Amino acid sequence: MIDPELRKQVPAHVRDDQIVMYDYVSDPRIAKVGDVQLGMHLLHEEAPDVFYSPCNGGFWVVTRLDIMSKILPDTDHFSNKELVIPRIVSDAVMIPLNLDPPEHLQYRMVLMRHFDPKSIRAMEPFIRAWANKLIDKVIAQGHCEFAEEIGAAFPVSVFMELMGYPLDQFEEFRRIVHAFFAPETTPEERVKVQTKILETVAVYFDERRKEPRDDLVSKLLQEKVWDRPLTTDELNSIGFLLFLAGLDTVANTLSFTFNYLAQDQKMQERLGAHPEIIPSFVEEALRRFSIVQQPRLVKADVEINGAQMKAGEMVVCSLPLAGMDDHRNPMPEVFDVDRKDRAHLAFSVGPHTCVGNQLARLEMRILTEEWVRRIPHFWRKAGTEPERRIGGVAALSKLFLEWPKPN
Ligand code: HEM
Question: Up-side HSE of residue 320: CA atoms within 13 Å toward CB?
């Protein structure tokens, strides 16, 4: 029996049996289980495959991979224009993420030309060099706080080098990125940091306009849409999205992955002895520790698995639930590098599939290769427990690792 007060908060077209409490930002299931993805997986038992949560302003939740695979590419019924829960009607546009067809494709191609397999392969030497520089900084001390010192620092370094940003400003960049994503940052502070990011992005487009170099900022300045150059606003919006899309996501996926690896000594030995299985290890990590809850705005009424979704409502495809879907991955809680027919949607699916997915996979592979080669035996510091959060991008912080000090 649904509490009548709760029922009043739910639109009339939602049936009682479709209502389940699920908090997008701090669902109690996570704390109960002490594992973000396993906590979310409880929904597979407790809720219908598509349900309505009255929390966070009210939104639909999809829990199965096959249904997400229909919704995410369906641009006739679902839009990327608004991607915030609770819904905030806003004119701010991150290009290409917030665009729908047909204009989306023109802008996406601008980025795809620089994130194709050949361009990604060419990045391998400097990505490996960065992995080693960061390991150099901590290896002698026999311990580190992985989430900040490695997980966050690594993608920021790679991103700065890729864009051609001055590496002596590394600490400043890390400070900005940290401030933007830190949960304690207030919405007002976040707006200030957002302005700072946009200013920073704009400064380097200006500099490279005068003096081009061999970096992504200079290359983007040469790009065209509909046979005209990108405007300053469009360039800044793309730069801003790259800043947000490729840093926190890689950092958190690495933290979840290394938190697991620190507790599985046999896996450490296996990866050290057989580095050729590291690509499968990365894929299994992306499945088991998927982090993005991907919203869509319903733009035309549609029925999905008996749920009447109305234009203007929000729906969330919780991508961690796709990896944990026991219809597709038997015993999804088990981390199994040898898993057959593994299925996940860590990078979404359809026209907005993550542009940086090959770069993210490469960063994860290289860091794992270099780490297990140089620190073959490590563990989580006794008595410590990382902090975990969900929200749009799930996060794991305060990951204290230890290993024997080299002689
Ligand atoms: C493990 C790391 C990463 C994860 C889990 C991830 C995940 C995602 C997801 C779920 C989307 C949204 C797709 C949608 O709306 O359906 C996305 C979009 C995007 N990502 Fe990533 N991402 C990662 C790393 C990166 C990196 C390294 C870059 C580039 C530097 C990047 C650039 C982008 C861009 C540009 C988009 C927008 C694509 C479009 O709208 O067409 N991402 N990513």
Answer: 26
